[in-house]
Amino acid sequence: MLVRRVANQLDARKGDVATAMPSGLAVAASFDVQLAYDGGAMIGSEARAKGYNVMLAGGVNLTREPRNGRNFEYLGEDPWLAGKLGGAHIRGVQSNHIVSTVKHFAINAQETGRMVLSANIDEAALRESDFARV
Questions:
Q1: How far apart are CA 109 and CA 118, in angstroms?
Q2: Are 78 and 132 spatial neighbours (Cβ–Cβ below 8 Å)?
Q3: Which one, 9, 13, 32, 37, has least CB within 10 Å?
Q4: How many helices (H) and strands (E) does the chain have?
Q5: How far apart are CA 89 and CA 74, in angstroms?
Q6: At a CB cut-off of 8 Å and minimum separation 6, what does 8 contact?
Q7: What pLDDT, in 10s, does the model give residues 31-84?
């Protein structure tokens, strides 16, 4: 579920700080749709205050590969839960008039070799896993 804060990578904006939020896995463990919404609303509010109008968020890929470097962003391995919480988070961000986009929607289960990997999956299997949220 998106990067959990409004980033200031490499301290590009001197003195700009952001609120650290719980990981997507921690939010998923709560099973709390309102908590996901509230977290998104807070991030959207912070983004708005900093002059942003687009957030590349939230990440709703399923957590299947334990070595995936982005698992902290995602909402676990259950497609129904990831869809419910991811949707609530995005609505929270958007409640601040911020564009929020779903990222890493399907079959993004690893970082190593991700530019060269071909994830071939049968349509029926895809609908039972990653597309079960749709």
A1: 12
A2: no
A3: 9
A4: 4, 2
A5: 12
A6: 16, 17, 18
A7: 999 999 999 999 999 999 888 899 887 888 888 888 887 888 889 888 889 889
